[in-house]
Amino acid sequence: MMGKDSAVKETVICTEAQFVKGEENFRRYGSAYSWIPCQEEEENLARCIRDNKARIAILGTYRYRGQLYQALAESAGEGPALIARHGVGYDGVDLEFCKKNDIMVTITPGTLDQSVAEHTAALILSLVRDIPALDRSMREFRYAPVTTMELAGKTLGVAGFGKIGKQVATIASRGLAMKVIAFDSLTLEEQMSREGFGKEEFYGKYGLSEYYTDYFEFAESLDILTIHMPVMEGTLNFFDADRLSALKSSAYLINTGRGALIDEDALYNALKAEHLRAAALDVFRNEPYAPVSPAKDLRQLPNVILTPHVASNTVEANFRVQQNILQNIERFLQGRYEEMTRVV
Ligand code: GLV
Questions:
Q1: Ligand 1, atom 3: nearest CA belongs to which residue?
Q2: Same domain assignment for residues 167 and 128
Q3: Ligand 1 in contact with 318 (CB < 6 A)?
């Protein structure tokens, strides 16, 4: 016999990888809901939503093109449905489709900036001090010191000066004494007026030395480039062969933003030809990683460090993300739509 509670519980669908990160918190703080983990591929997820007549889905970063939205809209009937992204990027969600189908979309602003910035700092340090290679040599019973480079005084370019980029700038300038310069499509005036700061306060807050809206001017003097831009029209493959070649051949590149920002084949070519010194990547065009062109597999290059999209995956950030999601679900169910952290 079905328990009285389960008959009235709202069903929440959650993609499996996100459920693994959140099950404990979801069950503890969201005991009013019935939690159903489902595989993230669109066909499976759409089927799972229909089978459970669910109108709420928590999603990872997978890209959804159509069936998912139709399934959610069908289950929701006359009322709205909710997609809650487990994180801040929403390039995998088709916002136009959502608008047409009365699907609200929430993200979790401010929950993971520190974790992503810390992972970025870890990658910068690992790359510049050659930590993975040194560790490997020790395990191979070779005691092989390598002379590397100090970060203090070197120029770090932060491409994408949003919340995460700003956190990276703060850590690099205050913690590592680097010279930090920024690039963004927003003008400096727009940035300052958003924060209600004058130039001196704005530069001082993030330890900034220069601010650019022209990529090529920004790129030419960098020792290290770190990428924190969103994927949107105009930023897809932004770092193509031309823009990569604007960097010094001694420059390092870090990407903890999104794989689709970089032309991965062009990056492979630049690294292979040593037109770029080395790269550390947490995000990829295809996730789980598979090379865009089989002959240009980044795993074959010695001057690359790879991590499997984990920059935001800490206990602390996950907890904040999950609390934000639970709050959005509660507000959604209470019709308090204006209080949700929505992008649609
Ligand atoms: C992580 O990549 C996110 O989008 O939150």
A1: 87
A2: yes
A3: no
Task: Give the list of residues 6+ apart from residue 107 with CB closer than 8 angstroms, or none.
Answer: 85, 87, 88, 89, 90, 341, 343
Tell me the pLDDT of the chain averaged across its residues: 97
pTM of this structure: 0.96
Q: Does the residue 3 lie in any domain?
A: no
Report yes or no: 296 and 268 within 8 Å, Cβ to Cβ.
yes
Q: Quick one: 293 exposed, middle or buried, by C-beta within 10 A (0-12, 13-18, 19+)?
A: exposed
Angular region, 102: left φ>0, alpha ψ -120 to 50, beta rest: left
**Count of domains for the chain:** 2
List all residues 6 or more positions away from 122 whose beta carbon is below 8 Å from its beta carbon.
none
Question: Ligand 1 test: best mutation among 59, 64, 88, 227, most atoms within 8 Å of CB?
Answer: 88
Q: Residue 92's Cα: distance from chain center in Å? A: 11
Mind telling me the catalytic residues?
258, 287, 309
Q: What is the per-residue pLDDT for 8?
A: 78
Residues 329 and 245 in one domain: no
Both 288 and 153 in one domain: the answer is: yes
- Does residue 61 line the site of ligand 1, with CB under 6 A? yes
Query: With a 6 A CB cut-off, is 87 part of the ligand 1 pocket?
Result: yes
Query: What are the tokens at 336?
Result: 């308090």
- Token representation of residue 324: 């934000």
Q: Give residue-wise pLDDT tens across range 202-249.
A: 999 999 999 999 999 999 999 999 999 999 999 999 999 999 999 999
Task: Let me know the angle formed at the C-alpha of 277 by 273 and 280, rounded to the nearest 5 degrees.
Answer: 110
Mark whether 267 and 323 lie in a shared domain: no
**Where residue 86 sits, what CATH number does that domain have?**
3.40.50.720
User: Is 129's pLDDT higher than 60?
Assistant: yes
